[in-house]
Write a structure and sequence with these properties.
Structural class: alpha/beta
InterPro entries: AB_hydrolase_fold (IPR029058)
Oligomer: single chain
Protein name: Fungal lipase-like domain-containing protein
Strand order of the largest sheet: 1-2-3-4-5-6-7
Number of domains: 2
Helix content: 55-70%
Radius of gyration: 29 Å
Distance between the termini: 38 Å
Number of helices: 12
Keywords: Coiled coil
């Protein structure tokens, strides 16, 4: 799992949040670079070629230093590492997560790398996607891959005015940790310009709601989230943002099962014992070599150093290796008992 941190330092707020998320600087520069890369400048005067190259370099720097690029690159590196057989991670699946800005980075990197994502109180970053992937998001192609969870009263999550998630669409499957009410209905905000005094009231409410995200009820805080003893999200008033229906338990808990056979447990025990014997053998071989060297060295003097080393190795074997061997026996015994009960039933 990769967990992306939310806004923490000043550059997070003014650089990533304001320019990249709200101003969509990252995507605009990315799109501009694609056009510039396909443009032939050879026929331009040298001064214009120079200006073009400098403008291109500035855009490349912005894209390269963006946290969205960093999140994408990190995810690619981890996927590559997990795919390498020598790292022993065959069968493992990568998941991305994050809160606030970190959730937005996770959603973007998840789409770009085909990785599952669970985000919390994340801003809407659908406009940061390339055109083809944004179209897929609007069609709902990522709803089974990306789960985005947030409070409907959190301005970061829903936008400053009404519910931005409905206006622009959302990358993944949307879940609310509380029931959206009339204050989150875009129709109220759309109609406010035609009703005297209502724009003043709605704008005032939106401003107050923004500050309530970080003080008072702190709608944006992760402290509002509760979990059950298994670590699953356990919110008493949770709603499916797609259907409007109230749901029970965590949206990620359905269909999750742990399948472990007796044969697999016994194989784990066998592998563990083999590792224990291998480590024990290597320790004995290494200690014998060291003792042989010491016996031929003036450092051994009265033999205390050799005795100390021998005693230390023996203590390690008894205190550590034997304890692991005992745990392996315990695991195997539980597997046998499980098999017996299973056959009886």
């Amino acid at each position: 799992m990769i967990a992306f941190r939310g806004s923490w330092e000043a550059p997070d707020f003014y650089d990533a949040d304001v320019f990249d998320v709200m101003g969509n600087r990252f995507r605009k520069n990315q799109d501009s670079l694609e056009k510039m890369n396909s443009f032939d400048t050879s026929s331009l005067p040298l001064t214009e070629q120079f200006n073009f190259a400098m403008a291109k370099e500035r855009k490349q720097k912005i894209v390269a230093e963006s946290q969205f690029t960093n999140a994408d690159d990190l995810t690619k590196e981890v996927k590559k590492y997990m795919k390498d057989p020598k790292n022993g991670l065959d069968g493992y699946q990568l998941t991305l997560t994050g809160h606030s800005l970190g959730g937005g980075l996770g959603e973007y990197a998840g789409v770009m790398n085909d990785v599952a994502v669970v985000s919390y109180e994340a801003p809407n970053v659908i406009d940061s996607l390339p055109k083809d992937k944004k179209e897929k998001a609007l069609r709902g192609d990522y709803k089974d891959q990306i789960t985005t969870i947030g409070n409907p009263n959190d301005t970061v999550f829903t936008g400053f005015r009404g519910n931005d998630n409905k206006n622009r669409g959302r990358i993944g499957h949307l879940f609310y940790t509380d029931k959206p009410d009339i204050k989150n209905d875009n129709r109220i905000h759309d109609a406010s310009s035609y009703i005297p005094f209502l724009p003043f009231l709605t704008n005032g409410y939106n401003t107050v709601r923004f500050f309530m995200g970080f003080m008072g009820p702190s709608f944006h805080s992760m402290d509002n989230l509760s979990h059950d003893k298994y670590g699953y999200l356990n919110m008493p008033n949770m709603y499916d943002g797609e259907t409007g229906e109230k749901i029970q338990g965590s949206p990620r808990a359905d269909g999750v099962t742990i399948h472990l056979t007796v044969e697999e447990v016994k194989q784990i025990t066998s592998d563990l014992r083999r590792e224990i014997d291998d480590i024990n053998q290597k320790i004995v071989q290494a200690s014998n070599k060291i003792i042989n060297v010491l016996q031929q060295s003036p450092a051994s003097v009265d033999g205390n150093l050799i005795n100390t080393l021998t005693y230390g190795i023996y203590g390690f074997q008894r205190g550590y290796m034997e304890r692991i061997r005992s745990e392996a026996d315990f695991i195997e015994q539980r597997a046998v008992e499980f098999e017996t009960v299973d056959k009886q039933n």
